[in-house]
Specification:
Layout: H1 2-17, E1 25-29, E2 88-91, E3 98-105, E4 111-114, E5 120-124, E6 130-133, E7 139-146, E8 149-154, H2 156-164
């Protein structure tokens, strides 16, 4: 058990240090209360009150051009961010695959998640695994392995943001 947990953490750490690989990223829905401590917002590393995770931190701020919707690298009109691109967010709801947006790793290390129309929904700070809401920096999920694959694991709050951005 300890060995498999260590492997999970090493793979997760490697994927976070390198940023998400340029590939589809599935979306999974999770119950925040069922998250283990190391992935929960109760852990200071994943807490919105940690300045490294805060929307007030310029690296995470929507006013930072690296995170801006007006930056062409982050734009929905950039081919890499479209339905045929290589940074798609895929919702596997009900077994069918649905394009739910895209992600872009900014030069500053923050990974941003956008709706199909190019609206920033979430961000993942360069030093963390937590996912935070674009508008208020609230905890919305984690980057974690779900059913064996790295996923954008969203809480109920994150799922609402995703639903409203469609």
């Amino acid at each position: 058990m300890r060995s498999s947990k260590l492997k999970f953490l090493l793979v997760l750490a490697a994927s976070l240090v390198c940023g998400p690989a340029l590939a589809d990223l599935p979306i999974a829905l999770i119950d925040e209360s069922s998250l283990p401590y190391n992935l929960s917002p109760s852990n200071y590393d994943n807490s919105p009150s940690n300045y490294d995770n805060s929307i007030s931190n310029y690296d995470n701020s929507p006013s930072n051009y690296d995170n801006s919707e007006s930056n062409y690298d982050n734009s929905a009109s950039n081919y890499d961010n479209g339905r045929s691109g290589d940074r798609r967010l895929i919702d596997k709801d009900g077994g069918s695959l649905k394009f739910a947006g895209y992600y872009v790793a900014a030069k500053n290390g923050t990974t941003n998640f956008y709706s199909p129309r190019g609206k920033r929904m979430f961000y993942n700070p360069k030093k963390g695994r937590g996912i935070f809401g674009e508008k208020d920096g609230s905890f919305c999920g984690v980057l974690a392995r779900v059913n064996g694959e790295l996923s954008l694991a969203l809480t109920e709050r994150g799922a609402k943001i995703l639903l409203l951005s469609e």
